[in-house]
Structure formats: structure tokens, C-alpha cells
Design brief:
Blueprint: H1 3-14, H2 18-25, H3 29-37, H4 44-54, H5 58-62, H6 75-110, H7 115-144
Helix pairs in contact: 2-3, 6-7
């Protein structure tokens, strides 16, 4: 459904005439008619005002593919994804902390004579965890835009 069809349908659903809507938006009735006939589009300010008056999103008004606000991607699903990312990052930090503590314990147990082996193992573990951390950061940065 086009924006023009949506504007007509939403206005009629409210029971308003073009003149009624024109008064609410402080525009001429002819402007409303041009919007509804497809001769012109409302500017950004009027589009926002229309979305408030009709209690719909501007995305719904602008996207011909959306038949209702129910077709829009849910913000909650984005929030859930972000919450999962935060939880995964917290788990990653916990694993990194445990790896560090285990490396410190291994160092204390092994003593000075085994220092080279402990340092190599610790360096490898930290390099792997750092690589994963950078990869996850870049991936989340790209997904946010």
C-alpha cells in the first residue's frame, strides 16, 4: 500500500475530513489533497506530525511494503540481541579472568625453573583470547553500523 493510500485510510479511520486534518497540521486543505492524490509528499516535519496524529511510525508511512506497524521489525528483538551480546561478552571476560588466574597458579606451582613453559602457555592463551575479543568487537561494531 502506498503512502497516499495510507494517508487516506488513516484519515478516514479517524473520521476526519481533509479540512479537519489541514487545521490540525496548520496546512491548507489543498496540501492534504495533493498528499493523498500522490501529487506531492509531506515534508519531514509534517510526516512526523502525521505519524503522531495517526499513532503509527514514520517507517510504516514511508515503506510501501508495510501493511501495518506489525510488519515493522521489532525493537524488542534488537534489544534481546544486544542483551545476548552483553551476556556473551561477560562470559568471555569471565573465561579470560579464569585463564589468567590459572596461568598465575601454574606459575606459582611450577616455580622459576619452569618459567619459560608457563610464559609460553600463558602467552598463547592470552593471544587466542585477545584475537577472539578483537574479532567480536569488530563484528559488533559492523552490525551497529
Amino acid at each position: 500500500m502506498t503512502i497516499y493510500d495510507k494517508l487516506v485510510q488513516l484519515r478516514k479511520r479517524k473520521g476526519w475530513s481533509q479540512e479537519d486534518l489541514a487545521e490540525k497540521l496548520d496546512v491548507s486543505r489543498q496540501a492534504i489533497s495533493r498528499w493523498e492524490n500522490g501529487a506531492a509528499l509531506p515534508d519531514a516535519y509534517n510526516l512526523l506530525q502525521l505519524s503522531h496524529l495517526y499513532d503509527v511510525s514514520t517507517d510504516y508511512l514511508l515503506n510501501d511494503e508495510y501493511e501495518s506497524d506489525d510488519d515493522l521489525p521489532r525493537v524488542k528483538s534488537v534489544e534481546a540481541t544486544l542483551n545476548n551480546t552483553v551476556k556473551m561478552n561477560q562470559m568471555f571476560l569471565l573465561v579470560a579472568a579464569v585463564a589468567f588466574i590459572l596461568a598465575a597458579i601454574a606459575f606459582l606451582i611450577a616455580g622459576i625453573e619452569q618459567l619459560n613453559i608457563v610464559m609460553i602457555i600463558s602467552a598463547v592463551v592470552n593471544a587466542i583470547l585477545s584475537g577472539i575479543s578483537v574479532y567480536r568487537y569488530e563484528k559488533s561494531r559492523k552490525s551497529r553500523g
